[in-house]
Each structure stands twice: as structure tokens, then as C-alpha cells.
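Researcher: We're reviewing a set of sequences before deciding which ones to prioritize for further study. For each one, I'd like a predicted 3D structure that I can look through quickly. This is Histidinol-phosphatase. If possible, include the structure in C-alpha cell form so it fits the rest of the review sheet.
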Amino acid sequence: MHSHHSHSGQFCKHAAGTLEEVVLEAIRQGFEVYGLSEHVPRYRQIDLYPEEEGLTLDQISSQFEQFLVEAHRLKALYASQIRLLVGLETEFITALDLESLDALLQKHQGQVEYIVGSLHHLNRIPIDFDRPTFEKAIESVDGSSAFLCAYFDAQYEVLRRFHPEVIRHLDLCRLYNPTLQFSEFPEALERAKRNILYAIDYGALFEINAAALRKNWETPYPGVDLLQIILQHGGRLALSDDSHGPHAVGLNYGRLPGYLERAGVADLWFLEYSETPNAYGRNVRAVKMEQHWAAHPFWSRFS
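Model: Here's the predicted structure for Histidinol-phosphatase, in C-alpha cell form for your review sheet.
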């Protein structure tokens, strides 16, 4: 089985454990492919989170570079037991983040094997920190419809500029309102469809992200409405636990088969390392699971 998205307390202050502990837990649970994808640095002091108080911007940048070194060390060390992928998770707070990511990717070409495309802010305000901050972000753009539209427009800019191989929590914009139906916001729904079709066209994988289940959602990300749009247009799906430490490796994976079955998901995909760079200069390619996903022996541990 596979996961394309994870964090560790060693390199992410709101996570726990070391990167090696995360890898060892993934091995223990029988993961065959596991993606290491720490957050990229942020470039304004105001954008640091409370748990990062006292850190400088130089330390934040150095922390990410240390992650790349350690991730590649672990990839080589445990190559006989698991296929590790070394990637990053994007941020888009201001244009500075996009410009800086361009520079980071050029500097570390060959070390960053794939990108997890994410968006955690709207109008420079975090949307996944807590409910009051989430509500503040909505108020800052004059209500829910404008908020949803702005979210998908910002997401589209990340897709268009970087073509991330994995689209993370496509609908994080309804984090604190998981029952929200995009059909009630037609302008936002059109933007979501635009993003989905664009990502399908360049070959992205869409995460079925189990983290939503530990945030009191009834489903993983994305919700049923967006998942059906992805499936109707031939989009390709991959799994992620979005773990924030060894305690969360594979967390709630046992609840994924029911969701996939109800949605009629026939195929799952995963990334694997490729010596030949893809169209965007990164060393991965998408591969379809040979067997039907439900037949994989990994699920037997949950029965």
C-alpha cells in the first residue's frame, strides 16, 4: 500500500517524532511506497505559527534543507524494505511563496522528486489553524461564496505554475463546514471543476486523504461531490495518510475501503521513482496498481 503525504516533528513543529520513526512505522505496517513531504519554508516572519515562536526565517529554510538530506539518507538506508519518495508540500500565502518555490526547486533539482500541491491560507490568513481564524478568513473576503471562489482561484495558480504530481486536500476550504455542498455555490463549483479538469489534463493524482477523518469529517478529502467529478472525468486517485508523526501513520486507513466502494472507485494509482524526469523535471511517474485495490493484502489487518 502507499501514502504520498507525511510530516514529522523533526521538521514540522506541529507534528511529532523523528522522520526515521515515521519511516520505521510505515515499514512496520507494511507500506510499500511512502512519501516524505515536509512543508516548504515560509518567507515572512508573520507567517510563522505559534509553535515556531523564536525561530528565524533562516532557521526555517535551513530546517527544510536538513529534511532533504535526512530523507535521502533514509531512502537509501531502508531501500530494501520500503520505497521512499522525497517531496515537498507547497504553500501559497503571497506571491513571494511562489517565487521562492521556483528558486527552491531550481536549487534542489533532483532532490525534490515530487510536489504535493496544497493551499493553507486565504487572503494571508490560515484556514486550517482553528475555527475562529477560519471564520476570519471568510469574513476578510466578504462571505462564503467569495471565500470559496478565492480558494479555488489560488489553488489554480499553484496548479498552473507548478503542476504538482499530487493534489492534496482538494476541498480544505470546507474544513470546518464539511457538509457544505458546492452545488449551493455555483461560481465556486465551476472553479473547482476547472481545477480538476486542469489537473487531470496534465496527469496529476488526486489524494484520498485520510486526515479529514481525524478532523470529524464523515469522509476523507475530497468530499463525495468533488470525488464524483474527478471520477466522471477520468481522474486518477492515490492514497495519503497525511501523518504528522509515527502515531498517525496509516491512521484511519481502515475506513477508506468503505468510502472507495460506495463511490465506485475501480483503480488506485501511486507514484514511483523514475530515472527519467517527467515533463516538469521531477523524478517520478504515476503507476496503476496491478490488482484491484480491494484485493490488496494490506486491508486484511483492518478486518
